[in-house]
Amino acid sequence: MKKSKIFLHIGHGKTGTSAIQSSLAIASEKLATQGIHYPIGESLRDRASKFEVTSGNWKPKPETSLADELVQISKKSKKHTTTILSSESLFWTVPELLSCKKEWQDQIDLHIIMAVREVEEMLSSEYQQRVKRHGDSMPLWQFIRARNFVSSHHAKAAEIINLMSKHQIPNTVINYSKHKQDISRLVFQQIGAEDAYPADKMDGAIINRSLSRNELEILIMINKLYHQKLPSISTIISDSLIKNQPNLRAEQCKISDHQLEKIYNKNLADLQTINHSLSEGEQLSTQINQTKEVIPDVQNKKKQEEESLSIRLIGDTLAKALANEYKTKLANETVDAIIKLSQSENLSKTVEVQLLEIAKENRPQEQTLSKLLEKARTKPSDN
Asked: What domains, with CATH codes, occur in the chain?
């Protein structure tokens, strides 16, 4: 009985998975002509092709094990010789699959593709994701300490590598930190379809970027003030920034050397296990890297201009969210926060007026607020 070839791209998170899934969605029809099936619904394919953030073409099914699902795929795979599934959720599910290899090994020719990332980059990116999507407002040092300086992604990656070695599962491990610009193309190479890679659409595409330092600091402040009453506020604002300012240069969060020493000590064994699967020159750092990136003055000036736009976007988005969500009288501390935000630098006249009008509705008798609002209304219009 001929085995069905199945590639599992398992992530992990924050390693270019959205870009990889967009490229696979865009190329799905061309891949099919080569006997490579990327099963995906039309609606999801259209969203991914438009560079929207999706979860790939696979979701966990509580009623079905991954092993049973892959066996069913292999049985139905008549027209196509190869199937590709891509999802970050597979990263956490695949150890169980590997542990029950006897159940599927006679029917499936499995190849696992996994990306890894420098540990300090990963913790920084994971922290940003918590701020962007989950409304976290704790400082970075507290976030890292709460995890006891352990990167769960690197621990799981090391576990998967050990299981792949034990059960002799063909695999590809890619260091995303060294291949941020070409990781999607590398995946196409691994599945034997480099000529199907949609370079014209993917080259230069940025999907789900991280935030700049100023954007992050402002969003943390907003989460502190509004997340309890507006749980979706961080997602609304970060989506607005990513959509309207996709090319703004993101920044890695600064982790102190003291914390980095603890991070590398805690994760050293897992990093060494991962490095056994990477060639020399591709391996992850196992100690603090003292090299600091220098940004040219021209880029700094551009970054300042872009961040001014970001601050306006944040103010505008927050003003709209408050106007839509708050129909009753706001608490005094919330009104104080709105007034303070309205006086931030780089806000447009329109946003400043909108914020002050919300504050005024809640304090109609306050004369100081009336003067601020009148002053904002009589300002010259923004160019």
From this structure: 4-202 (3.40.50), 213-251+293-377 (no CATH)
